[in-house]
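Protein fold
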Amino acid sequence: MLVENELFVPLVHISIGVLLFLLGYLVKVKQWNWLIAGYNTSSAEEQAKYDTVALCRGVGKLLYSLGSTLFAASLGFFLEASWITSMSWGLFIVGVIVFLVYANTGGRYKK
């Protein structure tokens, strides 16, 4: 069973997961594209080349999936199944890499 000091790590995972879900909602639903790094610092001419709705939808989905992997990691801590936590972190890293490759190839978010 987990003792008080061991609850810190899963609570951090849950807190960051909730934050990622909140940011995903703000980007995907509220279209807060200024939260997207790189997009918010580019010039207006450069931003006009991108489909903002599709970009926000894609980044929002990424943030939802990353939040979900952190919830799964905390579940692994509570169930004392380290393989769940390890697999969740692996999926987190793979998800980020796959999204970066997907978003930067083929002009997927360009108009």
Summary: The chain has four helices and no strands. The chain has a mean pLDDT of 93. The CA atoms of residues 17 and 67 lie 4 Å apart. The chain has one domain: 14-104.
